[in-house]
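Quick sanity check, NUDIX domain-containing protein:
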Amino acid sequence: MEKWDAYLANGQKTSRILTRGQSIPDDLYHLAVDCLVQHVDNDILFVQRHLEKESFPGFFEASAGGSALYGEDSKQAVRRELLEETGLVPVELTFSKRTVYKDDNCIMDSYLALVNSPKDTITLQNSETISYQWGGKRKVKSIFRNTPSRPTTPLTDRNIVFR
C-alpha cells in the first residue's frame, strides 16, 4: 500500500498521510514528479508505455516520473523514479516548474535530468515501458508527428530544452 504526504495547494506539507487508490479530500494534494531526460550529447530519451497501461498504452513519452512516496521531497522522488524506470542516474538535475492540478488533487514538480551514461544501458521497468529511443531535434519532431505520443507536459514538445 503506497503512502504519500498530503500537501496544501500552496505546496505546504501537512501532517496528513494519503494512500494510493483512496479518495483525496478536496483541500489536499499529493506530490508527483516528472522529468525530461537529456543526454550530454543533447538527445532526448523517449520511452514507450506498456501496452497494458490504463492510460496512453503504447504511446511514447519524453518523461520519467511518478508519485513522491511518504517522506520524500520532489528531488528524491524524481531521482528514484528515474532510476526505477530507466536505470539512469542524472549528473545534473534542474528544477523546471511546479504545476497544481486541482481536478486531480496533484502537485507536479517538473525537472530536466542530464545524463552521461551509455545510451544502450537503459533498463526498462517491466510493467511500465516496453521500448525506448533517443533522438535530437529532428527525431523529436518525427516522433510527435508520426507516432502515438502523450499530450504535452510542461517539458515536452515545444518546451524541450536543448543545450
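Posting the structure with no commentary besides this: The helical segments are 74-86, 137-146.
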